[in-house]
């Protein structure tokens, strides 16, 4: 059976891993029940499996920065283009979102507005109305975030699906089978709270308290992973 591949491109902090598992475990949990075989893959050390064995691919977040342009990142960019050429549904999250944008000709850099962290409100665009993943979401919804870098210039062929005041490209689609989201649909509320504490050096005490108080469930953002799973299933059945 074809696989839903969750590509690891780095690790969460030791504290997070000990309490909640790693990035890929959160994604698998958020996907929920599926008829697909879900497999984890180390994208920093191994090439992708043969494409004809893949039903869909999720590229996770990472402590690494796309602008580092490490050899494995450049190889994964090429793989992203190959996945699109073969119409294999692909979803990038945070780092994965930025890597996809860069692979298709976009620009990634430090967010000129600074660090976006915590539970924030994201707004859908008019262009999202016909998108198979985003069209059924509310026009505004909450999502968990942490990112220093952003897609500062989207690829020419990208459809922007969501944004907010901090981030012009919170979600985008390229072609018919490739999506990227800057926010984290895989984060639980507890994970978001722990990440805020882990990054308190970047916040004043009042900012930290404000963001902790703002932290809440993000059921609409979390629904993106089950929706992606359903889209993958439709593509092979």
TrEMBL record:
Domain Glutamine amidotransferase: 16-193
Signal sequence range: none
InterPro entries tied to this protein: ChyE-like, Class_I_gatase-like, GATASE
Superkingdom field: Bacteria
GO molecular function annotations of the record: transferase activity
Gene3D superfamilies, alphabetized: 3.40.50.880
Keyword annotations of the record: Glutamine amidotransferase, Transferase
Keyword Transferase included in the entry's annotation: yes
Residue ranges crossing the lipid bilayer per the database entry: none
A cellular component annotation (GO) from this entry: cytosol
Matching PROSITE patterns: GATASE_TYPE_1 (PS51273)
Pfam families xref list: GATase
Protein name in UniProt: Glutamine amidotransferase class-I
Organism (species): Vibrio caribbeanicus ATCC BAA-2122
